[in-house]
Amino acid sequence: MKILIVEDETSISRFVQLELEHEGYETKCVADGREALDEAVNNDYDLIVLDVMLPSLNGIEVLRRLRQVKQTPVIILTARDQIMDKVAGLDLGANDYMTKPFAIEELLARIRANVKKEMRSSQCVLTCGKLKVDVESHIVTFGSDVIDLTKKEFDLLVHLLTNRNVVISREQALDAVWGFDFYGNTNVVDVYIRYLRSKLDDVYGVQIIQTVRGSGYVIRD
To answer: In which domain, by residue range, is 89 found?
Structure first.
């Protein structure tokens, strides 16, 4: 498990880092808001501990920009009397908050709870950038927009997302989505790929599903 600690008070940052590493977490400490945003966007962390009061870019703005591209769990750290920071953080998608000064035992407990919650939710929610697919509820969203997909379109998208970075041949897609007993041309896969692209790529100017010439299709990280 990797945790990013964003805190400009060296004594607090180092203390939290030592405690987390003692618990078996891999950590990195950052003291600057802009550096923290760059680190969080360009690297994968299981959780971020984010102080609000930071140089160059405050924690609330870091969270706002991060949520445009990623849903990494975030615990914000606020001063005890800054109620609006807590409200703003939660409204922007913070998963939890702690007020300073805090007991390290409580922070560790909140980290464990949020990591477990994320592990449970990640089993039924698939994401790729702003694309989010809730497998249980069959709801597909891109940013704040809900995308209307047919059953086969949904199943094909889920299969590609579940096998991210793996090239799926037309035959494999046909077996997984239409079933082994399907009697028809593998071109049906191409047709449904076009349907998905018309609802995602063409509308939002992205390239979610890539064609691997002669092999099939893939969604990459």
So the answer is: 2-121
CA-to-CA separations, 64 to 67, 74, 92, 178, in angstroms, rounded = 5, 11, 6, 41
Contact predicate 168/218, CB 8 Å: yes
Check pLDDT > 70 for residue 119. no
Q: Return the CATH number at 199.
A: 1.10.10.10
For position 107, which CATH number holds? 3.40.50.2300
Residue with tokens 């939290």: 16
Burial of 108 (0-12, 13-18, 19+ CB in 10 A): middle
Of the candidates 100, 121, 142, which is a domain's last residue? 121
User: What six digits make up the tokens of 112?
Assistant: 């464990």
In contact, 175 and 215? CB cutoff 8 Å: no
The pTM of the full predicted model, rounded to 2 decimals, is 0.57
Q: What is the mean pLDDT of the chain?
A: 91
CA distance 216 to 96: 42
Facing residues of 96 across strands? 75
